[in-house]
From TrEMBL:
GO terms for biological process: beta-lactam antibiotic catabolic process; response to antibiotic. This is Serine hydrolase. It comes from the Bacteria. It catalyses: a beta-lactam + H2O = a substituted beta-amino acid. Residues 51-265 form the Beta-lactamase class A catalytic domain. Residues 1-21 form the signal peptide. It comes from Spirosoma rhododendri. InterPro entries: Beta-lactam/transpept-like, Beta-lactam_cat, Beta-lactam_class-A. The keyword Cell wall biogenesis/degradation does not apply.
Amino acid sequence: MPRLRFLFVFLWYAAFPAAHAQEAPARPSASTRRLSKALEQAITGFRGQVGVYVRNLRTGQEVAIDADSLFPTASTVKIPIQCGLFDKIHKGDLTYNQELTYRDSLHYDDGIVGSLKDGARISLSQVVMLMESVSDNTGSLWCQALAGGGTTINQWLDTNGFRQTRVNSRTPGREAFQKQHGWGQTTPRELANLLVYIREGKAISPDASDEMYRNLSRQYWDHDGLSQLPPNIRVASKNGAVNQARSEVALVHAPHGEYVYCVMTKHQQDEAWGRSNEGTTLLRTVGSLLWRHFEPKSTWTPPAGYEKWW
């Protein structure tokens, strides 16, 4: 009898192995391993912490290096601010082309919006454009307030599955997070996925996503990773910089398939401002590396002397 029981158990496991054996994770492709190795080499020796997330939207190829750690958003926080604002517009609380009145009490710095005279009239759509295209800080804080503040924006993020991305500045209860991360916080993976979410028409509504994506496709600050792409390639992006951190998220409409990537740094030893900053240099290095990986037959290179424009 024991022998028969043993034989029955043996035959049952042999017949249904999948029910009792955990599937081994798929081995990364040779291409993915090469990309991962190249990115690891690119960040080796960096004096600070780096997070990188890359995904090819056509093939699903993905590389993640410290991609789920929290990093300061710096100005990339203006992507979730735009989402919160467009949610208000979608609900009818605001209209996109409504006229606003600038007041000196809104002044944060001397950007374009902050240089307006008290009482100047400007449309909301223009303020949004300045927030995303030239990263105007006074305009961005104005948009944050119009969106209902950081708490309202964070509720939208949470409802839509973005649980690591948060607005900290001027947000009650998040003072400790602001002290640690600044205006906002996110992870490279989540910020990249938020950009994809907009690209796929899932943020607010298809029409709202379309307009937000158009705003993100008009980037004045194109001297980081974008400078390593041919000028005829469409890109939706946002970058950010504070003393000890640099960040850039981009969705590249490459000929052989769109890809999204996000690079973020923190605790940088190099706090200098300028083209040679370690973080800024890393953004260009990664931008170039990814373009050459996904478009290996491209012969385009930045023209000699391009760097003098920055």
